[in-house]
Amino acid sequence: MAGHGGRGSRGGSPGAQGYLQPILTSCRPPRRWANMAAVDEPAKPVANGGGGGDEHDDDSDDDAGAANGAEAGGAAKKKKKRKPKKKKKNPTSQTEPPTVPVSQLFPDKKYPAGEEVEYRDDNRYRTTSEEKRHLDNINADFLTDYREAAEVHRQVRQYAQRTIRPGQTLTEIAEGIENSVRALTGHQGLAEGDCMVAGMGFPCGLSINHCAAHFTPNAGNKLVLQQDDVMKVDFGVHVNGRIVDSAFTLAFEPKYDNLLAAVKAATNAGVAEAGIDARVGEIGGVIQEVMESYEVELGGTTYPVKSIRNLTGHTIMPYSIHGTKAVPIVKSNDQTKMEEGDVFAIETFGSTGAGYVRDEGEVSHYAKNGDVGKVDLRLSSAKSLLNVINKNFGTLPFCRRYLDRLGQDKYLLGLNSLVNAGVVESYPPLCDKKGSYTAQFEHTILIRPTVKEVISRGEDY
User: Fold this and answer.
1) Closest CA to 323 of 337, 336, 342, 308
2) Is 234 a residue of the active site?
3) N or C: which end of the chain has fewer CB within 10 A?
C-alpha cells in the first residue's frame, strides 16, 4: 500500500537463496481429496444358532447345536469388531481456485522462507554471529507469522496472475482475491474480532492506468477491466498483525512491457540496496537511476519512464501499514538509516506522465488513526461505527465493502464524521495526469539480525 509523500505517517517506531517453492497445482478444476475417512461396510447377516432342537435330541444334534452356537458367537464377535476409522489426512496441494488454509499444507508450521540475503561490508559478520543467531531464534513467532502471511500472498497472487482477464469487473477481481486470502488464512472475518487474528492486511487495490494507488471498488461499482488497461494489484495479508505488503502490475498488451520492466527492475534495485545502516535517500537515488533508464513507445511517441516523486515505500508496524520511516523513489538528502528489526515495504511507481500524483475520485480506503486520543463524538452513528471499527479492524486499513460485509448500512454520515474529527484517515485514489500510464511493484523485507529476508519473494517476481 503506497506511502504518500504528502501525508504524515502513523504508528510508532520500533534470484532467491533459501526460498522454497510454494505448493501449487497446475490449472485444473477443483478436485476432491482422495484421503477421506473410510466408510464402514455393513456387517453381513449371520444365521442365529442355538434353538435347533429340544433336550431329547441325540448327541449329534447336540454337537451340531453347539457348533452352530459357536459359529453364532463367533459371528457376533466379528460383528462387534469395527475397522478403525482412518484419520482425515491434511491435503498436500492447493486447489484451484485456492481454498485450502496454508496451515493445513504446512501442519508443522515450517513455512517457506523468503529470499535470504547476507549483509555486506561491515555487517558481514552478522551471518555467523552467535549473538545475532540467538536474536533470530527468539523471534521465531515473528518469523512464523510473517512466513505464513507471505505464503498466503504468493499462492493467492499467482492464481490471480493466471486467471485475471479483460472482461471481468473490478469488484469480481477484488472480492476473488480477498476471499482467497480469507480462506487461506482460515479466518473469514465475520465473527467479531476475527479480522484481527488473520486475513486482509489492507483492501485489495486495483488501480487502473493513470491511477497509481488506493483504488478499490465500492459497492455498486461497474468498472470492467479492458484489454488496453494497465492495472496495479496491491494487497496485504496479515497474521497476528504482521503485514506482508506486496504488489504487481498486469498488462495484456506487449507495448507496456518496458513500463513494467522498468518498475520491476527499480523495485529489485531498491531491495538489493536495502539493509542495516543503508540510508533511504541513497536508496531512492538508485531506484530513480534504474527507473529512468527506460523508455516506452506508445502510439508512435516515446515516453521516458519517470519515478513518481511524491510516492514512497515505508516501514510496517504491527497492525499498522505505515510506520514512521519512508523510502523515497527519487534521490534525496534523507539520511535516515535502516536498522535491525525494521520491516520495510520497498515499492516503486513509474509513470509515462508527470511523475506526480494528486487525490482524485471517490474514497474507498480508510484506517483508524492510532495516534489520536479520546475525541468527543456527537453523532450516535459515528460512535456506533467507531465501535465496529475498533472491534473488527483496530488500526488495520479497511474499505467500504468490508463494512457492508459486516452488515453495516447507512454508515457514510458517521464515517465522514470520524474522518472530519481525525479519528479515521481517508486515503483517496492517487492519480497522475489523465492519459498517462502507471505501474507498481512492491516487496516486504525483514531487516533481521543475521540476514535481510525478502519475505514476499516468489517465482513470479
Assistant:
1) 342
2) yes
3) C
Is 272 in the same domain as 193?
A: yes
User: Among 77-86, 152-161, 240-249, 285-294, whose mean pLDDT is lowest?
Assistant: 77-86
Residue 134 annotated among the catalytic residues of the structure: no
Provide the 3-class DSSP secondary structure of residue 81. Answer: coil
CA distances from 440 to 156, 246, 260, 263 (A): 18, 10, 8, 6
pLDDT band at residue 80 using 50, 70 and 90 as cut-offs: low
Residue with cell string 533508464: 293
Q: Is residue 37 part of a domain?
A: no
What angle, 0 to 180 degrees and rounded to 10, lies between the N-to-C axes of helices 412-420 and 380-392?
80
Give the active site residue among 234, 273, 342, 453.
234
- Residue range(s) defining the domain that contains residue 394: 365-427
Whether residue 246 is contained in a domain is answered as yes
Task: Note whether residue 460 is domain-resident.
Answer: no
Q: Which member of 115, 116, 145, 245 is catalytic?
A: 245
Tell which wins on pLDDT, 67 or 334.
334
The model's pTM is 0.82
Instruction: Select from 322, 319, 321, 365 the least CA-distant residue to 196.
Output: 319
Number of domains into which the chain is organized: 2
Does one domain contain both 300 and 335?
yes
Q: What is the pLDDT of residues 303-333, one digit of tens each?
A: 999 999 999 999 999 999 999 999 999 999 9
Which CATH number is 146's domain given?
3.90.230.10
Give the annotated binding-site residues for a divalent metal cation.
Answer: 234, 245, 314, 347, 442
Are 119 and 214 in the same domain?
yes
Q: Are 410 and 322 within one domain?
A: no
Separation CA 232–CA 230 (nearest Å): 7
Task: Tell me the per-residue pLDDT of 240-271, one tens digit each, with 9 for 90 and over.
Answer: 999 999 999 999 999 999 999 999 999 999 99
